[in-house]
Fold this sequence. Notes:
The protein has about 200 residues and is of the alpha+beta class. The chain has a single domain, classed as Fumarylacetoacetase-like, C-terminal domain (Fumarylacetoacetate hydrolase, domain 2, Alpha-Beta Complex), CATH 3.90.850. It is built from 4 helices and 15 strands. It has helices at about 10-15, 90-100, 105, 150-160; strands at about 5, 25-30, 35, 50-55, 55-60, 75-85, 85-90, 110-115, 120, 130-135, 140-145, 170, 180, 185-190, 195-200. Strands 2-1-12-5-6-9 form a 6-stranded mixed sheet, covered by helices on one side. Strands 11-10-14-15 form a 4-stranded antiparallel sheet, with no helix packed on it. The chain has a 3-stranded antiparallel sheet with strand order 7-4-13. Bound molecules: zinc ion (ZN). Zinc ion (ZN) binds near residues 56, 85, 172 and 174.
Amino acid sequence: MKIFCIGRNYAKHAKEMNSDVPTSPMFFMKPDTAILRPGTPFFYPDFSKDIHFECEIVVKINRVGKNIAEKFAHKYYDEIGLGIDFTARDLQKQCKEKGHPWEVAKAFEGSAPISKEFVAKSSLDLENLEFSLFQNGERVQLGNTADMIFSIDQLIAHLSKFNTLKKGDLIYTGTPEGVGPIAIGDELIGKIGEREMFKVRVK
Length: 203
Ligand code: ZN
């Protein structure tokens, strides 16, 4: 199982990171050991002092495909979930400065909490889907897929140029603005609309 993550897919987040808005989708990957199973706490790692949350809509691929045309991309997923792309912002900053790969800051164990449940896309308006993250009861991120720079179908078309997509692969589709640091003791709750999708405790 592969995990693709999209960087800078919301203009306001690119701006808050002082990054340019990309002209084609930018992606990186996490290994399957990055998945934080639902109900499992996240243990703050000792290699970073600045882990940030990035709440993201997650697409689950439902069948094998390569070089998928954008107009057929909708056939390759039925279900939508929600997750967090935990990022060691201090290490990422060093990577950016040195021109190094981001894996050390993005691909560590437990860095990809995922919702227990995935929702049938037929029951959702994917063009206008609101999602949010609450940190200790306070809403810290509010996103809407309407603000994506590249749509889910465009992302699938792009990613499948470089790699065969397989059933069960996940695409974290990028975070809206409002990213911030976590602390030990935090409770993070992610919602699609009013529906609670995950709860992660930081230990
Ligand atoms: Zn992200």
